[in-house]
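Re: weekly structure request thread

Next one in the queue (433 aa):
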Amino acid sequence: MRIEDLFNQTNIIDLSFFNFRNAVTAAYYANEDFQILKVNDNFKTFFPVLGNVSHAYFPDVLSQLGVSGEQIELWEKSICKDGRVLIPKIEIRIDGKPRIFSLLSTRTSDPSFPYLNGIQGQFIDRTDEWTLRREREALLEEKIRDREIIEEKSRQLEELATRLAKYLSPQIYESIFSGRHDPSEAIKRRNLTIFFSDLERFTDLSDTLEPERLASIINSYLSEMSSIALECGGTIDKFVGDAILVFFGDPETEGEEADALKAIEMSIRMKQRVAELQSYWKKLGAVNGLHLRMGVTTGFCTVGNFGSEQMMEYTVLGSPVNLASRLQSAAPRDSLLVSEDTYNLIHEHVDCEFFDDLTPKGFVRPIKVYKVLDFHSEEHRARRRRLSHTGDHIEVNVIDSSNIRAAIEELRRIQTEFEAQYAETEEDAATEA
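Done, posted below.
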C-alpha cells in the first residue's frame, strides 16, 4: 500500500494550501496540466470577474484577465523549462480601473504525495507601489526639466551679461553685478584724473571713406585704445565718435598720485600703439594715417548714475572734464597736454616741458599747461609691451592685441611654411648641381 492511499487527497491539498488562506496575495495551486485545483479567498477578491475557476486551465485564466499573449507564452515556457517564473509587471483592469500585479509561480514536488506535484503561485498587488514609482519618475522628470530650464536661463543670462559687459567699463560692470554697487549711494564727489582724446581731422576721413573701411579703422582704433585703458586701470566712461573719455580714481583708486601716473602711462602707450598701426590703417584707406591729441587733468568731479528712469549712465561731470577736452583740442599732433594740478602729481616721475598759459573756453583765469614727454625711468619704459618689431630682415606688427596667443601661433605657422619652402629650394638647388 502506498502512503498517499492512507490520506484523503482533498484534505492533503487543503493542508498544503493552509499557509495561503490568509495571505495578502492572490494564491493558487494547479496540477501539472495547469488546471487550477485551489485558490485562496484573496484570489476571488482580487479577480471577481473570474467567478469559479476550479479546474480552469491557468493560461486561459490569464487570458481572461487580459494578460498579453506574449506574457502568457513567457509564463508557459519559463515554468516548463526552468520550473519557476517571475513576471514583475502585469497590467489588469478590474472594474474598469487599471491595476498592476506581479506573478510568481513555481513547480512543486513531493515524492510521498504525487498529487501535490503541480504549480503553486501568487499574484501580488503592486498598484500603490507602481503609482508611487510613476509619481517619483514624474517628479524626477520635472526636476530634470526644471534643471534644464534653469541651465538654459543661466546660459541666456550669461550671454546677456557678456553682451552687456561690452557696454560698461569692467570696473563698473563688476561693481554692479557683484552687488557692491548701491544706486542710493551712486552720486559722489571724488578727486579724479580725467583723460580725453580725439583723432585729428577724423571727420574729413569719415566723409570720404566707404562705411565698411571706416568701421574697420575706427573699431580697430577703439579696441586697441580700450585694451590699453583697461590694462592701466582706467574706467572707460564713453566713446563719442572717435573721442574717448577715461577717468582714474573711481570705482577703485590707489591714491591721487598713482591714478595720475596711470593716466600718463596709458596716454604714452596709446600714442605708441597708434604709431605702430599707421601702416595698417593706411592700407584700409586712411592715407594720411591717424593722429592723436590728448588732454589730462586732475580735480574734484561728481561721479555716479545720471539719466532718466528709462536709461541711466555711470559717468563723470565737472570742470576737470571740460578742461581735459579743451587741452586735447589745444594739443599738437600726437602729443599729450596736462594741467598744472596733474603736473604737480607726476613731475617727479615724468619728463614734462612747459607748453603755455592758456585760458580755455569756459574758464576765467589762465591755466599753466605742460607737454608730457615720457617717464624718467628707463626701467619703467622698458617694461612696456611692444607689439611691433622692425629688424634687418623682417618687420612684424600685431594688428589685434586682444589675442596675443593667436598672433604667436600665426607667427609659428609662418615660420613653418617658410622653413618648408626654403628646404624645397635647397633640395632643388642640390638636384640641379
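The chain has three domains: 3-125, 188-399, 408-433. Residues 210 and 430 are 51 Å apart (CA to CA).
Next request, please.
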